[in-house]
Amino acid sequence: MIGCALGAALLSLAPAALGYDPWGWLVWGREAAQLDLATGTGLSWKPLPVLITTPISLLGDLAPHAWLFAVRFAGLLALVLSFRLASRLGGRGAGALAAVALLLLPGWMRYVALGNLEPVLAALALGGGLAYLDGRRRTAFLLLGALALARPEAWPLLAVLGAQLWRSQPKARPLIVGAAAAVPALWFGPDWLAAGDPLAGGSVALAAPEALALQASDHPLLEALRRALDLLLAPLWVAAALAVRHRSPALRALVLSCFAWIAAVVVLAGAGYAGLGRFSLPAAAVLGAVGAGVAVDLVRRAPRSVRLAAPAMLAVLLGLAAAPRLGRLDEGWREARDRAVALETLVASVQRAGGGRAVAACRRVAVEGPFHTALAWRYDLELSRLGDTASTPRPRLDASRSRTTWAVREAGCPPREARASARLAPKRAGQSPSEGNDREGNGGEEP
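^ that's the sequence the OP posted. Answer follows.
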């Protein structure tokens, strides 16, 4: 734990900026701390991150750094837990393979660099899997309950584990009753109180660009399944599937639960949701560790005739599967660096055009690019006050990008009558801020 904390502190020194959703969770955390929560726009509600950002928001300007530290701590902890889970099955070599497989998950470095929630969910899933295999079912239930506050795919698994605990451990019944009340209350209650509709988050999710794009594809279910299968190296999928016949009932139940999670992602994609690959990441993290352990264990127990060749064959298969991913390991950090430069430039341009007073005077602020939530945090705005430049009626403050510069125009926002403009080029000549929009689900990737 101390090592993870030190590692997270060192990673926090790297230039980075939060992604779209984390800025929004910080905004909601600040609003929740002020008892003035406003949901239903921008991104879809999920309780877990806001339960974390509400106390973090009390740190003021340090809150984004605290969130990044927490996510990077969780990312490093997930590597440790993956190593431990695989080592149970196949020794230290399997543990090392599992940690590498986690690092090679598509988007993993991006999630860590941009402060997305996935490293936290992977740590919860791996910790829950270890607790379940150790027979600590109440601990596993608590960790799965935390997952259920971020991903709806965990709900049926939580119900099944709760039913098992109800029968086997009567002393755990108050915990089960509390979870049965808390999970739906925290998912639907805030939207009901803040937006007037307990299903507002689901509506945002169904209207998210990612969800609409998936539904426009030829085979949404197959596409959602393909995205899930792309997460792990192919040999690890095969080894994880073989674990279904493992001699340990607990391990079999754990593996089947992970496959059920992925099936739920696919089913929800068929119901109109986004079905992004990262929705399956908690299950894939566990399956990757199990697959690594089973694969190495099979090699160790191979028949004498192939015992010498088996490690080399496994290494070749894993190397071929991993090779295309190795060159993309630093993409997330580069994107985070570029996003930090772009956001710094945007904020400087807004300051030149009037700053916080000009923003506060406008009923709505129009922003081009994935920085709505970042400006909402910076200028203490509700997410509903920000929109795209093409769809926002005047009066407004426009913040838009023009080639390699930011352009900010104050357009009819009282009390100023004269229009002001400012342009600020990126720090390095020829460098263009990242054009990528990380509205990963626009918050609304899940119901």
